[in-house]
Amino acid sequence: MLVVMKQSATPDEIExxxxxxxxxxxxxxxxxGAQRTAIGLVGNDGRVDGSALEDxxxxxxxxxxxxxxxxxxxxxxxxxxxxxxxxxxxxxAGPVPVIAGPCSVESEAQIxxxxxxVRAAGAVALRxxxxxxxxxxxxxxxxxxxxxxxLALAKRETGxxxxxxxxxxxxxxxxxxxxxxxxxxxxxxxxxxxLKTVGKLGKPVxxxxxxxxxxxxxxxxxxxxxxxxxxxxxLCERGLRSFDTQSRNLFDLTAIPVVQQLSHLPIVADPxxxxxxxxxxxxxxxxxxxxxxxxxxxxVHPQPEKAMSDGxxxxxxxxxxxxxxxxxxxxxxxxxxxxGPAK
Amino acid sequence: MLVVMKQSATPDEIExxxxxxxxxxxxxxxxxGAQRTAIGLVGNDGRVDGSALEDxxxxxxxxxxxxxxxxxxxxxxxxxxxxxxxxxxxxxAGPVPVIAGPCSVESEAQIxxxxxxVRAAGAVALRxxxxxxxxxxxxxxxxxxxxxxxLALAKRETGxxxxxxxxxxxxxxxxxxxxxxxxxxxxxxxxxxxLKTVGKLGKPVxxxxxxxxxxxxxxxxxxxxxxxxxxxxxLCERGLRSFDTQSRNLFDLTAIPVVQQLSHLPIVADPxxxxxxxxxxxxxxxxxxxxxxxxxxxxVHPQPEKAMSDGxxxxxxxxxxxxxxxxxxxxxxxxxxxxGPAK
Amino acid sequence: MLVVMKQSATPDEIExxxxxxxxxxxxxxxxxGAQRTAIGLVGNDGRVDGSALEDxxxxxxxxxxxxxxxxxxxxxxxxxxxxxxxxxxxxxAGPVPVIAGPCSVESEAQIxxxxxxVRAAGAVALRxxxxxxxxxxxxxxxxxxxxxxxLALAKRETGxxxxxxxxxxxxxxxxxxxxxxxxxxxxxxxxxxxLKTVGKLGKPVxxxxxxxxxxxxxxxxxxxxxxxxxxxxxLCERGLRSFDTQSRNLFDLTAIPVVQQLSHLPIVADPxxxxxxxxxxxxxxxxxxxxxxxxxxxxVHPQPEKAMSDGxxxxxxxxxxxxxxxxxxxxxxxxxxxxGPAK
Amino acid sequence: MLVVMKQSATPDEIExxxxxxxxxxxxxxxxxGAQRTAIGLVGNDGRVDGSALEDxxxxxxxxxxxxxxxxxxxxxxxxxxxxxxxxxxxxxAGPVPVIAGPCSVESEAQIxxxxxxVRAAGAVALRxxxxxxxxxxxxxxxxxxxxxxxLALAKRETGxxxxxxxxxxxxxxxxxxxxxxxxxxxxxxxxxxxLKTVGKLGKPVxxxxxxxxxxxxxxxxxxxxxxxxxxxxxLCERGLRSFDTQSRNLFDLTAIPVVQQLSHLPIVADPxxxxxxxxxxxxxxxxxxxxxxxxxxxxVHPQPEKAMSDGxxxxxxxxxxxxxxxxxxxxxxxxxxxxGPAK
Lengths: 343, 343, 343, 343
What we know:
4-stranded antiparallel beta sheet; homotetramer; 10 helices; alpha/beta
């Protein structure tokens, strides 16, 4: 930690900061500059919370030198973490798995048809929400346990791994019975109670970036899971809130190489939420693979125009099949491959 | 709902949209323009979800004419809602109550001292977190039930109403036993499970705006509470995420008159989180009152430099006492008054 | 400047940074920490550009300790600058001047009527654009020199000082012949050629904050003017681009006390552009005065529904007169007064 | 245009809006809904400015159905525009040209070495600023005409086309003498005087998106150029301002397919400014090609650690050569090719 003093700071004010640092058991190392003095805090084991210093007289700014997260960082673990959610379905190992399926589980027929379609095209996991976080209380909220049972049926029929969202503590335990990977949605990225609960369940987790979360925030939320002993965490970029309404979100693909540099955890991309428009999914899925994504999650619905949610961003099975063909080419061009049996 | 067609849309494409509308049981009213045709959906009782139309051939855009929320709107209820959290402590009734206290409950001595100090200055409710949502799992997470008991003690000693945060379903029930008003934090504004649980508890709620939430999002989250039968909802503006690091958040005071126009619910302002810097609390608290806020929530700590969280934005008791003196003048200048006995 | 090294940085990598610093003629002061080493650059007179270091092996981050601006800073000049644009019309001196008038000069009748109306209500300067930056080339672009002559007429009739915008070098010289204060609009805040030209003209300048400009950016743009020898600079907060469409911009009133802390230059607020809606101008003008603004600039049009631009955010003369009455009360409540003869 | 009335709007208020519309010479078509009445404005040839209606009694919102731009739109011209800046260097024709070179022209040796290096790797145009928009007046401002002459020399030596920035009217005419394509920088995207001047010069233009510009804003700025008769316009995505400091900007690659749908103009991507970090340029350049970019502009410096500006985001010649090899693979994978002779 570095305490930057104002140009007008008096020797007394500088000394008072040094005293505060020493009282906490650290060493204070003043560093006078032409314009300002900066005081280093040396000897700390982890990050020290210096917010109390921020408004002390003469203090201009507190600058943190260490990262606030630990176990998720590349410095903690150099090699990539490989997260395996089902036999043969691994993220971070090299090949790029694709998770696909509808926004919501709507009926047995719909989810089974979706599962067959996405499996035929090469997806290795099925997405589909049984618990849906909707901004309006009057929108369809998901089928709950019934939806989970439909997912289980789809899994039995196709062998696909299941990725589905949990929204609260009770729901998380239920979801854990059925899912191979528990999704934590963007709106719950900083729902720390849920993170702790899910961290203890020991199932792989897909953690989506919040719509105004910095990458540091995302990594700190993942740290909650690792701090509970669960290292099976897949991060997900799904777009940020933006001032431009041309797309639903602002898809931040640079987050992929940034996360890969800072953390050993795999990161997947969601071009469906990232763009919000079906016809933008193909170009942005290609871009995500080219940027180095460790996986993709794509919305596919047998009849998007009848979807109960997210119809506008869901691909048809045919569109998804073409997308997969295209993604294989891009993956190869960047020295990777799409996971799963060649189609 | 209005479906705007592309300039290149064919008569067939226009007809297909009309068919979709009629199949849902509504009337389609095409409106040909010089450049484009727009098709009105007439006969709906509430908002129709048209996202499935968005990518139909020839469709350029879907425009919603009705609001997505109902019970929170001014059109639903013309007069201001008055939310009374304790005898004599009402929001929306005219006088402006001030809630004050530390970020976290840290000890019996600290919270009781805080309570006496803020009461002496004129606050009518005490804030202080027993459950703390912290971005790092290694930061102080609050004292939990012990903290709630300390708040109860502070209430017995001073008579102040208690406002404190709940972070999950189990916690909400516990908080409801001690608090006069349950706070839902910015990070949980779209934690819909928590909203439903808290909506059912029947206690007054202080709902903070999420850091990238539109005002529509905020009103929809409030709608979750009203849809559960709980109309005792106070909204709170506490600053948005911004690209400028000069202040912790971007305090959106315009939200106050905007919410007051769209909704009958009271809205309070939090200049402590809104700015993140102690020396900015006074000017922005004044500005909030001048903008018409129905209440304020201000962080005060007996010794900010020793605070376990948010020290930099906490006022000292002396600063808070001066702030209250100043706020009374501004309230009077805009034809209002600060709630509570004159000091 | 502080160079933060990665945890994995080798002694060689640390040494290479020290060499770079020494080659530039400064002293390198390494500061080993538990997790990372940070290297201070000592001995610099002003800000050193360290961007070339950012991607050297082992470097994690570059942190600047000094401000990038000089003459605009409080550290350069402790007392407030007072900017006088016409006899008796001063910003930063204590009393709060109000500039008012239409978005554009549309006709002699319109601008003269506007001038009389705003003067009667207590404004001390007249705004009105003769050169209009419009996002569409097909929108009304202003009357140019003819408009400036109409402003001159309005000045002769009412004695009001004139504030009007310049958009390019040629226009700036023309504007300087007629105006008492040259406005540089938000879209041109980083038009450095224009800043240099206007800086040389020696007229007072009203510099509006760009719609995604940090406060540091704003101060750096002002520094361009001071660097040309022109210290007569008034800053202006007029709202930032936001994701919420409920208001035209996100009015950042916290910028007022932040700028006042960092700089000696006066800062005024524009609640018309800040909100974009006529009925939000009164509450946010009050809030701006309460936050400590050194002046206000408000759009007023004799017939807003016939305005050629910005009709929705222009007050009528009657609304403006009431606003002025209200602002006097708020100014008094915060220990200030609205500039000009009592009405 | 559609005027949405409030639920509480009276028949009189509705009629008043209809009268306003008829007085302007259009037809008013009221469309009563269950909750609200909407009034269509029919018979307009282009976009009507309805801002004056926004605050009429009973009016809730104005919704525009037509685009505000014309000649840049796909509806105006269906086929892609092909912009040829020099013989064999075309954007929008299929193959993807790469523009490369240093941020600034620093010396004859530096620019000539850069030109040889980027040409050897396969670039077909050279970038390099002689006029530099810098946020601080104390930063290096470019070599001006001397820099342009150095660019001319580099062109004679390598045959590369020249792309370089103009910042003002006088500079634009000078730049036009030397450059094959005039760049308008992000900070000047809404400098309408410059757009008009450059539009009249008749040279191809590279127009960069402003850091908080919507895609509609970008297209409107391009419309300024087309309205002056210059259709040789290349758009450029270079990243938006963001709240996350992990990258310099938020690179909005979705803008590429969005622009390509709305407009016939080619759009290139700038991964150097888009990310701000050298090691992120390769993945994001790959992603841009995969997303369908019609060209790339990449910063390359012979010795980035000695660069006078943007050192941290400049690739070395070796890195750029590898990047080009990788980009060829990705281009092929999406059915395109990098422009220029195979290397």
